[in-house]
């Protein structure tokens, strides 16, 4: 099967989770519509921006630390964090994982689910 970028974007956009690919510095390479909506942006506008453009520096620094740990270990890391989005304080559960190949050796994939309003 030949790689189809439209199919990958459709897969991303169909999820009820924020999904993204970023580099080690937190620069977004690919995001889904929900990730963009969560930060009051569009997919097109979010690409090329960094996590520092979206959340406070202290929180962004934590995400960069996780990115580095993922790339160093080559293993996924799951987490639960409070995050300050443009819409306010949210609680997310997420997973970051290596998502790289020869052409893109330092990418991190991420999936984040807003669990703020989920009843236990």
Give an overview in words.
The protein has 120 residues and is an alpha+beta fold. The protein has a single domain, classed as PAS domain (Beta-Lactamase). It contains 4 helices and 5 strands. The chain has a 5-stranded antiparallel sheet with strand order 2-1-5-4-3. The longest helix has 17 residues, at 57-73. 22% of the residues are buried. The mean pLDDT is 91.
Report strand order across the widest sheet: 2-1-5-4-3
CATH topology: Beta-Lactamase
CATH class: Alpha Beta
Largest sheet: 5 strands, antiparallel
Q: Compute the number of structural domains.
A: 1
Architecture per CATH nomenclature, i.e. the level-2 architecture? 2-Layer Sandwich
Number of helices: 4
Q: Specify Rg, calculated over alpha carbons.
A: 14 Å
> How far apart are the termini?
41 Å
Provide the β-strand percentage band: 25-35%
**CATH homologous superfamily identity:** PAS domain
Uncertain residue ranges: none
Q: By helix and strand content, what is the structural category?
A: alpha+beta
Q: What is the overall pLDDT average? A: 91
Number of strands: 5
